[in-house]
TrEMBL record:
This is Preprotein translocase, YajC subunit. Keywords: Membrane, Transmembrane, Transmembrane helix. The chain crosses the membrane at residues 6-26.
Length: 92
């Protein structure tokens, strides 16, 4: 029994390191972003996944109406937000 535990220890250690280094940090970052996106309201600045910066005009359940700087107003999905740049929902 002790031999089995001794031989399984390296595999378990690799799994634990993999969990803490590879799996958990992106999950935590995604959870923080999701929390900030849910707190978005008019006037907050966001960066979209396609690289556009914009200001949130209105927020619906699934979409955001965003005014792109010196450009048009867009209606985008909430999932298109890459980063909250400024506003109540950000830490910046």
């Amino acid at each position: 029994m002790f031999d089995f535990m001794l031989s399984a220890a390296p595999v378990t250690l690799v799994f634990v390191v993999f969990l803490f280094v590879v799996i958990l940090p992106p999950r935590r970052a995604a959870a923080r972003l999701r929390k900030r996106v849910l707190a978005l309201h008019g006037g907050d600045r966001v960066l979209l996944k396609d690289g556009f910066f914009g200001t949130v005009i209105t927020r619906n359940r699934e979409t955001l109406n965003i005014k792109i700087d010196d450009g048009p107003c867009l209606s985008v999905q909430v999932s298109a937000v890459e980063k909250v740049v400024s506003g109540a929902g950000s830490v910046a």
